Amino acid sequence: MIRALIFDVDNTLTDFMRTKRVAVESAVEGMIDAGLPLGRDEMARKVFDAYAAEGWEDQRIFDKVLKKELGAVDYKVLAAGIVAYRRAKSGSMALYPRVHLTLLTLARLGLRCVALSDAPKLEVWLRVVSLGLHHYFDEVVTSADLGAPKPAPEPFRRALKILGTKPEETLMVGDWAERDITGAKRLGIRTAWARYGDTHETKDSGADYVLADVHQLIEVVRKENGLA
Ligand SMILES: [Mg+2]
Model pTM? Predict the structure, then answer.
């Protein structure tokens, strides 16, 4: 019997990489417009390489790339990049198809949900609120609430405590097998892997269920709970 769900946020509910791609491409165009003496594709590639190396939540990536490529930060170019990035980001933040429908249906079925993300607290809330998801979740647990990121047990224990459910009554939904699925499984939480959000070329997630679309969660819950 599944009574509650824990949702990862980036690449599970939000199409994070799509947003990032659109925002970075706009930022590069903004920087070129302000005088950046590098090609569009070349600069975009360098920014993505820097994110991959420094972390996708790094808020100083453009400073770092500009300094590395040009030896110093041209603040006119940096500002143009940040402005274009922010504009594009807020306009391109998107949910995967059927996320709203799925969360609404889960609520109608009487299931409780929390969101669980390793991203910085304010960043997670900005995404959740701007996409209108904040009413679906009892709480949003973020890295700042805990000492350790997934797959450590603390975030999952915190989520279970909020939900008031046992591990076997709870379903973790996430795209990152090594963090979301492994961490949940260790505590006996049921797992559904968001294959549609996979960015790690995962072969075997080890999850109880594999989702090609988030809405398949409804079938999973119906099956687990003996509903027609
Ligand atoms: Mg994720």
Answer: 0.85
